[in-house]
Amino acid sequence: MSLRLALGGFMHESHSFAPHPADYEAFLTPAGFPPLSAGAEMLGALEGTSVAAAGMLARARAAGDEIVPLIWCFASPSGPVTDRAFEMIAGEMLSRLARAHREKPFDGVLIELHGAMVTPQFPDAEGELLRRVRATVGDNVPVVASLDPHVNLTALMVEASDALTPYRTYPHVDMRETGERAYDLLMRRRALGRPFAKAFRAIDYLTPITSQCTLVEPMKGLMAERARLGLRNDIAELALAFGFPYADFEGCSPALACYGDDQSSVDATIDALKAAYDANEPAFAGGVASAAEGVARAIRIAATATKPVVLADTQDNPGGGGHGDTTGLLAELIAQGASGVAFGLINDPESAVACHAAGEGARLRLALGGRSVPPPLDVEVNVIRLSDGRYVNQGPMTKGNRSDLGPTALVEVAPGLLVVVVSRKTQAYDRMLFRHLGVEPEAQKIVALKSSVHFRADFEPIAAEVIVVAAPGPVIADPSGLPFTRLRAGVRLKPRKPA
């Protein structure tokens, strides 16, 4: 029997202390993800992409379900979403949902969310959105959402939905598969004929973004334990949320949720996972190198390596709320005379436009970057190649997603030091960032990237070594240095180190 399902998405990761808020326009031209779209246009925009909603859509179509598209949108991580943008997008989503539900009641609602969206009025923005969805369709219509594992999972989010399922990976190479799992969870909830038994637990310490990668310990082991505990037949979903440690509200922290047929089994399963998470606290207390240390080490390794050394500029990660325009790491590479370098990227529309005006082969002086966190870098550059910044990603995380970075330039800022200058920020997800400009990352001695972890999906396989560095920027590696005022009592700002 085919079902009538509503499908939508509203994605943003909000850094309370980042300098640039996300207004409505930020959702119209995101880099590397589909732009805001609604109705039938939304289905076309999702086709062939890596996002969770595409997985939901594929599963529903294969089952012959009737799909009612609402609205889907994404904006690059930044400061909080403005109240105006939230109400415009949530209002459109809810009005479409209510109108279609009145015409013919839904059998279920599927929504793709990030889970770390903050607005001035609603610090738990996804909790508020799910509350509104539940109020619109009532208690008897199952509501299931996919999440980014950097969700700041809250009790309201769990209460207002039937099930929530985060990606299992960081880098996020299973977004589409998570959407498929969300669809399957909705089907299991319908087959059960009643709400799942569910439980929620918050973790009492923040974990740095750089220590949350599922390719390495301790998160690799915790995710394996999550999988082991979730194998029981009466457990439908065991959700492990890493938290996004830059959101200043009481729900900021890692958290867990569990769903199943039996409450006692659900409680026992989630308590076992919480005990494992708590036991791993000292293992999350790692550090990163300074820019000077990281560059010196990269140059030393690159002298004999047969593969590039990858430097990750974690504190200006556009995927964590950075603006992608700080120059600390680039300045250090210049100061230490690094060559054979491809640097991706500097988000600086003014410099990109100036390069396009000058043309390929030109030499000109730029005040490069430094718009969000001064200073800019005073450099004389050679314009090597120009592009419109449009390409299709090919790597394992965002394969099929279209990037549109606006006017883009490849410039040489020092002998053998190439920099990609773009007009719209994006994280360095994919080698196509360089390849669409004629640069092969594999052929470089050093590849420097604006990213914390997501780069690993496409760049770690070609790397001799990965070095995460902390140059000045808003996405600070140690969240305990942020001026939090609204966290709940008892949350530790950093993991306790080993005794």
What does this structure look like?
With 499 residues, the protein is an alpha/beta fold. The protein has 2 domains: 4-284, no CATH class; 289-477, no CATH class. Helix content is 29%, strand content 23%. It has 13 helices and 20 strands. The strands form 4 sheets. It has a 9-stranded mixed beta sheet. Strands 2-3-1-4-5-6 form a 6-stranded mixed beta sheet, sandwiched between helices. Strand 4 (108-113), helix 4 and strand 5 (143-147) form a beta-alpha-beta unit. Helix 3 packs parallel to helix 4 (125-137). The chain is globular.
The share of residues in extended strands comes to 15-25%
Mean pLDDT, to the nearest integer, reads 96
The count of helical stretches stands at: 13
Rough outline: globular
Given helix and strand content, the structural type is: alpha/beta
First-last Cα distance: 58 Å
Q: What's the gyration radius in Å?
A: 22 Å
Largest sheet: 9 strands, mixed
Count the beta strands.
20
Q: What percentage of residues falls in helices of 4 or more residues?
A: 25-40%
Instruction: Kindly report the spatial arrangement of strands forming the biggest sheet.
Output: 10-20-11-19-12-18-17-14-13
**What is the total number of structural domains?**
2
What are the low-pLDDT stretches, counting only 5+ consecutive residues below 50?
A: none
Oligomer: single chain
